[in-house]
Amino acid sequence: VQLVESGGALVQPGGSLRLSCAASGFTLSSSTMMWYRQPPGKGREWVASISSAGGITNYVDSVKGRFTISRDNALNTVYLQMNHLKVEDTAVYYCYALARGSWGQGTQVTVSS
Question: What per-residue confidence (pLDDT) applies to 29?
Answer without folding.
Answer: 85
